[in-house]
Structure formats: structure tokens, C-alpha cells
Design a protein that fits this description.
CATH class of one domain: Alpha Beta
Strand order of the largest sheet: 2-3-1-11-12-13-14-15
Helix content: 25-40%
CATH superfamily of one domain: Response regulator
Structural class: alpha/beta
Distance between the termini: 75 Å
Strand content: 15-25%
Radius of gyration: 28 Å
Length: 521
């Protein structure tokens, strides 16, 4: 049998290749970033010109607006990313929204009335917030509910990047999602939030149908006979042979999360070796997301979470990916705790009661959720984690692989090894080491030109380990190098097998100081 077996490539596999397998959270211990491209995947609107299941390069917001449709989730993901990280290599793939029998589009209403008569008693303003965008609609004493409603609808429609449209009828402003189906608000998850108030004492009264489209008395979005998950699954199938390291999705349902995980798991195996991560967002309750994250329990799946967020899940996803791509583009780079840098654009939650408590934050981190907290100064990404927070059975907390940097650092090491090996040793011959009678390697063996032996390959690995240790990616380089094993596969004399194990660098997340003041008696 092979001494260093690798998943997907048995000794009987004969075609040329180089592959690396990364096992996270193993053992007793609790290509650099610039090459990591981003792809966003989501449903287009009827206005989108993009051909479904086709990959496009995005260099400006207008590209995404045209391909996905203005205000579509694909448009909003690319827009948010470019606002935070304009130098990224971004791709976009769109698929059709849900359609067919039973499909419904989420709606909500803002109703404007007068307490008495038909006009305001004084000039004033209505204050509206939709998906975090704020509007001030002025009114005067000659206005009616119709003129005020027309003005508000016009303001909303003028911000075309919003994921909904507005139409006024006699002071009832109906907000309609641009994307049909459950992903715009399924009656439970408040995807597209809105709120409204007016100045008191002006005779103008405003009311809203719920906190978000599809919630309370608004029409809930629903998938039709052709579901969004089915269309997403078809789109993913076209990417099985393509690597984009960061993959962002606008969906949030458990049904859609399943094929995303399957896709990432399959493409990140040594065969085909297209290591990637996937990020989805969530703005409903923590308990609901915990169920999804724990069920996923995979180190390459990330959940960005802000309960009752001003932003829809697509914007949460894009900003989280943007800051990771920027900071991870430097070797050893990672997103610090409580991150709120200039490229962090997520607004704080509106209601202070929705801010997570310290206990809720700790629970989220332990359960593999990248939770976003809020305070009077804004919001922050508390800690970057993935959903691999449990043992393989999903029953016991196991934090060894949950920190995002461990995956990023090891992927960087694996990518660099693969590129360096190809450049350095492509076209070499392979032979086993000559051994002495005691079984040790003959250090004076004569090796022909462009020929590789296990003992000559080990220094190559050792040098790479030292390099990454010096860059703050790996810790305890001597232990890493001591673990290195290189051999020729006894069942396949053309295969050089190598293995090593050790720890990535730890990140300081906590610090304590205990002070004791003593006064004389």
C-alpha cells in the first residue's frame, strides 16, 4: 500500500499530476492571496442580459447591473464588493429566478393617511429607511396622500441599486421585490427590511405592513414549480472544473445551502484539487442559523450573520468576502477580531435590542458563525470563523479548525508548494534512495542529472516550511520538519509521496490581567 496515501488518487492512477490534501483539525493539538479570485452567484431579474450559467468578468458595477439586472442580488453583491475592494478579480454567474406554478414575489406597503381632512396642517417630513438607505420626503400644506406617496415612490425608484421597486396608489406605496421567489422574503426571514415614521403634529400618519417584505401582512415570496435551488444546482455544475477561491451566494435557505456544500466539498478534494470557500449570509434569528451552521459543519463554509440587519444577505456576503480577500492577499494576512476597517461598510442594526449580547456572541463563535455586532459607533465583524465547529458526528464542540486563518494559511502553503514543485521538478526522473546495510540512506549516493530521490526532495519541503514559518504562517518549524516523510510509492514507482504535519500560527483572541491591590491593615 502507499505510505502517504492521498484521497482520489489510488496507486493505480497513472496519469501525470500533482496534488495536495489538507486535513484540518488533525492530531493532538487543540499561491498567495492575489491569485485568489472571487465569483458571485445569484438569480437575475427579467431585466438582466446575462446568459444563465455563464461566467463573466466584472470590472465595474455597470457590468453586474447589466448582467444580473439593476438591483438584482448579483448586482448588489458585486456593487458592495467593489465599494470595499475595487482591485479584486471578480467574476459573476447568474441563473434564472424561481418560476412556474405557485411562484410569488414578496411585497410590503407603506400607507400614508391624514388624521383629519385631506392635507397636512404644517410642512414636515416623512423618514423612510429601505435596506439601509434613508429617505426624507418633504410635504407641505397643499399636498395630499397621493402627492406625498408619489414623491416617496419616486425617491425609492431613483436609487436603482435597491432590490425592490415602489408604486403609489392613493397614498399606499407598494414595495415589490425585483426577484421573484422565496429568496426575497419567505414570510419568515426579513430579507428586505424597511421602516417609516413622520414628524408629529402635522396631521400626516404613516404605517407599514411589516418589518420586511413578505412579513406580517405583506405578500410572502414563494418558489414556483421551478425552484431557485434547482437553478442554482445547475449553475454550480458548470463550475465543477473551475477554481475561484471565494464563492459568494445570495441564498440563505437550508435547501440551497446543501448543494453549495456538496459543490465545495467535491471540488476541494485532492482530485480535482480546486480548493475554495463558500460564504452565505443570514439576517434572521441566531437560533435558526445555528441549526443550519451546525448541520453544515465544514471548514470551507462560512456564514455571515447580523440579526435583523439593515442589509440583505447578499450585501453581508459581499462585504465579508471583500475584507477577507484584501487582507488575505498578503501572506499571513487575516481579518482581525472586531474588525471595522474603512472597507467595512455594514451598518449597525437599528434597534439596540437586536444587538447581540456577549453570551450570544460567544455562542455564535463556538457554533461556527461569523457574527456581526453593533454599538453606538457602528458595526464590526467579531471574529472570522467557519462552520467546522463540531466533531464529525456534529455532537461535540471542536474548535480546532474553526478559525478562518487556519484554512487560509494552509491553502496558501498548499498552493505555493504546488506551484514551486511544478516549476522546480517538472520533467525530472525518479529513483529510490540507495541504502546502506543498516537501512540508512547512503549520503554519498551518486544521483544522475535531473533525477529526484526522496532524500533530495526533503530539503525542498524543509525550505518551504522555514519560509512560511518566518512569514508567521506556521509555528514550530523544527516540529514541522521533523514530521516530514518522503518515499516512493511501493505500488507505483513513478509517484513521489510526501507528508508533513504541524500547527499553523495561533491568533491572539483573548488576554486577561488580574490585579490585586493590597493596603496595610
Amino acid at each position: 500500500m502507499a505510505l502517504q496515501p492521498i484521497v482520489g488518487f489510488p496507486s493505480s492512477y497513472r496519469a501525470p499530476f500533482s496534488a495536495v490534501e489538507v486535513n484540518f483539525g488533525q492530531g493532538p493539538s487543540t499561491s498567495n492571496g492575489p491569485g485568489r479570485s472571487v465569483i458571485y452567484i445569484g438569480p437575475k431579474t427579467s431585466a438582466g442580459t446575462g446568459i444563465v450559467n455563464t461566467k463573466y468578468r466584472i470590472t465595474r458595477e455597470q457590468d453586474a447591473s447589466d448582467l444580473g439586472g439593476v438591483g438584482s442580488f448579483p448586482h448588489r453583491m458585486c456593487r458592495m464588493h467593489l465599494l470595499a475592494d475595487k482591485n479584486a478579480t471578480i467574476y459573476l454567474m447568474v441563473y434564472d429566478a424561481s418560476s412556474g406554478a405557485g411562484v410569488a414575489t414578496a411585497t410590503g406597503t407603506i400607507t400614508i393617511t391624514m388624521s383629519v381632512a385631506t392635507n397636512p396642517t404644517a410642512t414636515g417630513k416623512i423618514f423612510t429607511t429601505i435596506c439601509g438607505e434613508e429617505f426624507e420626503t418633504a410635504f407641505k400644506t397643499s399636498d395630499t396622500v397621493t402627492t406625498i406617496g408619489d414623491a416617496l415612490a419616486g425617491q425609492i425608484n431613483a436609487r436603482q441599486f435597491l432590490p425592490l421597486t415602489a408604486a403609489n396608489s392613493g397614498g399606499v406605496v407598494t414595495l415589490t421585490a425585483k426577484t421573484a421567489g422565496a429568496s426575497s422574503g419567505d414570510g419568515t426571514v426579513p430579507v428586505l427590511r424597511f421602516r417609516v415614521r413622520t414628524e408629529l403634529g402635522k396631521n400626516v400618519v404613516v404605517a407599514q405592513s411589516g418589518v420586511a417584505l413578505g412579513i406580517t401582512t405583506g405578500v410572502a415570496g414563494a418558489d414556483g414549480a421551478t425552484t431557485e435551488t434547482a437553478n442554482l444546482t445547475t449553475a454550480l455544475a458548470t463550475l465543477t472544473g473551475t477554481r475561484h477561491y471565494y464563492m459568494g451566494f445570495s441564498v440563505f435557505t437550508s435547501a440551497a445551502i446543501a448543494p453549495i456544500k456538496t459543490h465545495i466539498v467535491n471540488k476541494s478534494e485532492p482530485n480535482p484539487g480546486l480548493r475554495s470557500i463558500a460564504v452565505t449570509g443570514y439576517n434572521h434569528t441566531q437560533s435558526a442559523l445555528t441549526t443550519l451552521a451546525v448541520a453544515c459543519n465544514y471548514e470551507r463554509r462560512h456564514f455571515a450573520f447580523q440579526e435583523n440587519s439593515e442589509h440583505d444577505p447578499s450585501e453581508l456576503v459581499a462585504n465579508v468576502i471583500a475584507v477577507h480577500r484584501k487582507l488575505e492577499s498578503v501572506r499571513g494576512g487575516f481579518v482581525p477580531d472586531n474588525y471595522r476597517g474603512p472597507d467595512w461598510l455594514i451598518k449597525p442594526v437599528y434597534d439596540a435590542a437586536d444587538r447581540p449580547t456577549t453570551t450570544e456572541i460567544d455562542d455564535a463563535i463556538v457554533d461556527g458563525i461569523s457574527i456581526i455586532s453593533s454599538d453606538e459607533n457602528g458595526s464590526n465583524l467579531v471574529m472570522s470563523v467557519n462552520s467546522r465547529s463540531k466533531n464529525t458526528a456534529g455532537t461535540i464542540d471542536d474548535f480546532r479548525a474553526t478559525e478562518r486563518h487556519r484554512v487560509s494559511f494552509m491553502d496558501d502553503f498548499a498552493d505555493t508548494w504546488q506551484a514551486r514543485d511544478s516549476v522546480t521538478y517538472a520533467g525530472f526522473k525518479l529513483t529510490a534512495d540507495q541504502t546502506l546495510t543498516d537501512g540508512s540512506i547512503n549520503t554519498n549516493q551518486k544521483v544522475p542529472p535531473r533525477t529526484l530521490t526522496p532524500s533530495r526532495y526533503q530539503p525542498f519541503l524543509n525550505a518551504l516550511i522555514d519560509e512560511f514559518a518566518n512569514d508567521g504562517v506556521l509555528q514550530n518549524a523544527p516540529a514541522w520538519k521533523e514530521s516530514v516523510r518522503v518515499n516512493v510509492d511501493p505500488l507505483n514507482q513513478s509517484r513521489l509521496e510526501a507528508g508533513a504535519s504541524g500547527r499553523t500560527m495561533d491568533i491572539r483572541h483573548q488576554v486577561t490581567l488580574r490585579l490585586a491591590e493590597t493596603s496595610p491593615g
